[in-house]
Predict the structure.
Amino acid sequence: MNEISILMYLLSRKKSIHQIGATKKEILKSLNVKNKNKSVYFQDLIMGLSKYLEPLGLQINFNSLNSHWFINYDIELTELISANPFEGRPSLSATLLCVLTSCLKNSGYTSIQEIRILRNKKDVKDDIKILEKEGFLEIDKKTTNIRLTPLIGYKLDLQKLFVRLALKLKE
Amino acid sequence: MKVEELDLSEKINKRIALIKEEVLSGKIKLLDLQLNPIFSEINDSISISNIENYSQSYKNAVKLLNQKFEELKNLLTSLDIEKKFEDFLKTNPGEDQISDLFRGCWRKIFHFEPISMKFLDYASNRYVKERITNFNIEHLIREKTNDQFLLEVPKYKFTEKISAFYEKINKKLPCFFEDVFDNELDQIEIYEQFVYLLHLLQLGKIKYEKNTNTLYI
């Protein structure tokens, strides 16, 4: 057993439906790294594993929503295996975008009423339920507030989405 | 004015390494850092005599600059992002249009159940074991001996053993297949006798009826 195998295990494990991989702290703790230059060591480790994974069509990524490092398939493979979880269900993509917009506007929380207005649709409950079931959002049973889970940070390249949106608005 | 014969390349490299460490540990943000002093220092102290040492320093400094540009680009695209999303939704896009916005942004996560520590340990051990194939062939040391070398051979020939076994079970036949081995407790003996039985069946000395599980002559 070496650092690479331990790292591989940590980055590919699924803690829950919306928690995959490991944080930097967890990785350093598992590898018992305590030296002064641990951040540089950590970066070297990630770069090292990423070089091993590259020929397999895998890459290491960082989910800024929950500070977890994880592994995903590279762009070429992703295009081949269709990563879109809402393939053939555009209604869910539309509702998710509305949830994302509203959460960004309201410091992370939104409500069904707000989504309904943004979505310009009377009934969004079914979409919300499916998105909750698939792990994209959580609904507070008491307040009925909706908030996004970190899953969106794994499944979506948010930076790329922002760029695409900016370009779309310029058209 | 250039400071001739002064080689600051190592000092600059150390400084860049420190910046890198501080950025990675979250102590400083690259966007808050002025990179001009580093480039000025390179510019002021580089000369024909030390140009070779400076190539790495320049490369490291440019790397930092590129990273800073990348961070700036990310910052600019994420500025007022909620307003951009709202503006987009105000144009009343259709579901397909929204779905198209996500195109190329989805990621497929690699999650593989068998990559547990136990599995990796097992795989690692197996891999190591399988790789040990290059045995060193060492020359044997010739032993001096006055005795004549004899190859140890079995006491009886195989055919003699089969014949002995045939004689032994001959009286029992016809009988059930299992009854041939009924007195035998030693597993090795049973295997050995089973091999003899197979040979006898092949030779046609004994026959077997599958439906009744009976051996007969």
User: Anything to note?
Assistant: Chain B touches chain A at residues 17, 20-21, 24-25, 74, 77-78, 81-82, 84-89, 92, 95-96, 98-99, 101-113, 115-117, 120-121, 124 (CB under 8 Å).
